[in-house]
Amino acid sequence: MRKILIVGYFGFKNFGDEWLLQVLIKKIKETESYLRQVFVLYNTDKICKVNNYLTYFPRWHLYYIFYSVTLSDTIIFCGGLFQDQTSKLSLLYYLFIFLLAKILKKKVVLLSAEFVITKIPKFVQQIILSLADQIFIRNTIDVGKLKVTVSKSKTDMIKFCPDICLSDFTQAKNYTRTKIDTVGLILKFNMDKNLVEQMCLNLSKFYNLVFIPFHLGQDYRFYLDIINGISHCELRVWDRVENYRNIFSDIDLLIVSRLHGVIISLVLQIPFICISEEEKLIRVVRSYFLRDCVTLEELSKKSFELKDFIINPDFNETVKCKRLVEENLKFLITKNFYNTKFNGVII
Length: 347
Description:
The chain is of the alpha/beta class and 347 residues long. It folds into 2 domains: 2-165 and 321-339, Rossmann fold (3-Layer(aba) Sandwich), CATH 3.40.50.2000; 182-318, Rossmann fold (3-Layer(aba) Sandwich). It has helices at residues 15-30, 62-71, 88-103, 122-131, 140-147, 193-203, 219-227, 244-247, 259-268, 279-289, 296-301, 315-339; strands at 2-7, 36-42, 48-49, 54-58, 74-78, 107-113, 134-137, 158-160, 182-186, 208-211, 233-235, 253-256, 272-274. The strands form 2 sheets. It has an 8-stranded mixed sheet, sandwiched between helices. The protein has a 5-stranded parallel sheet with strand order 11-10-9-12-13, covered by helices on one side. The protein is globular, with a radius of gyration of 21 Å.
């Protein structure tokens, strides 16, 4: 029986990471050709066995880290873990698991990743690149940069794969919104509060505003401070990831500063504006749309007039992205998990 360990920023009430985890588990489960078990290192105090197929292990418990890595054949690092937005402590945590997996001769995959780390020495980055068995990068810019830093024999292990949540795209045909009544806001807690307040006060004169916190521990408190004194607004809090379509059902335009806000726009084909100076978001938007993000300062200079900054997801391009995701996930599951030789212990 093949056994897979998924490592990421899971269990911290962050919609994007929980969505990634749900999609990956679903895709592995859909491959019925082989028996398998999936383990997840999760922010929990005790082991949670969902069924014979899925088990959550406490991510901070050293024993269970060793146990889950030892038990598994393949370790998948899912999400933007190796990048500058990750704290130094978290980088050390993921590096520890990565090196432990390679010492134990496990197969290691980086999935839906970025790879821009100035917080650690370059030789450590090179170690990761040289030891990983497969790296799926979700923007084309990093793919090009990484391929010139590795030996020719390793270039094939670095592949462009759009964010795997794009496999949730199910729209059968394209349609155009003729009017904007409701604007959804997926804003990150560390944005300039005064400028965000100015923007929202201005927008509330023309639109209904819906604030959607993606990170419940951080964005929610930020939103509570913003919405005081703003009319025509509401706060929608997600409970279960799979219910996200209901939350966005009446949204005509999204203003986002989180990566999976962009991915939601693609999956649901909602026009959006990306406000960010974060490198990972800038690279994703450039990769998928050949456009740049806008800053709050730029918007304020335009009196928060939105029309010049709206990006409309292209239906046909989204279809292509989904197909590429599905092809890469199929490769990951069928080839990397099952058709290649494993050095790990099979239990």
